Amino acid sequence: LRFGECVAIQSKNIENNVLHINGTWDSVSNSKTTTKNIYSDRKITLPKRCLQIIDEYPLKYPKDKISKDNYIFIYKNNKPYNISVVNSRLKKINSSKNLSTHIFRHTHIALLTELGIPLKSIMERVGHNNPQTTLSIYSHVTEEMSKNIIEKLNEIDLLN
């Protein structure tokens, strides 16, 4: 998910383990707006761990601090988290990588690619229309993918 899509999730957007992404959080207007494009309005099935996080997260807040609009990922002001605050906190983590909210999107797509998920399925999951966007920007070759290439090449017996 894009950061704005994630923080714009309301409890009504999840039904039977399926998340309907129908908006994004605009930190300038401090409100939920339409998705980036028509392909960004989509439904995705959530894995078990995501559902656990979504179930547990509101328990961290007293009942009177829960967002009246039922946003799931809220901050002190009962509004969704601000991307600047989250990116600032990520930069404080001692890591060799330049962490930002967007790196998680890149990683998700790279891992799906590594798992052999078809390009069309990845595109639909992340809200892309153009395969070039997914391929050129997001499909990083991971160490595991490089290892798999060598394993596959070593399996080929050209002499028989």
Automatic annotation (TrEMBL):
GO terms for molecular function: DNA binding. It comes from the Bacteria. InterPro entries: DNA_brk_join_enz (IPR011010), Integrase-like_cat_sf (IPR013762), Integrase_catalytic (IPR002104), Tyrosine_recombinase_XerCD (IPR050090). Keywords: DNA recombination. It holds the Pfam family Phage_integrase. SUPFAM superfamilies: DNA breaking-rejoining enzymes. GO terms for biological process: DNA integration; DNA recombination. Signal peptide: none annotated. This is Tyr recombinase domain-containing protein. Residues 1-151 form the Tyr recombinase domain. It comes from Lactococcus cremoris subsp. cremoris IBB477. Gene3D superfamilies: Intergrase catalytic core (1.10.443.10).
